Amino acid sequence: MYQPNPQSEFRVKFDFRVDFKNGGYVEGHDFLLDLEGSTVSDDDLKAMIVESMNLARAGDVKIYKKEIVRRGEHQDSFE
Question: Do residues 16 and 63 make contact, with C-beta atoms less than 8 angstroms apart?
Answer without folding.
Answer: yes
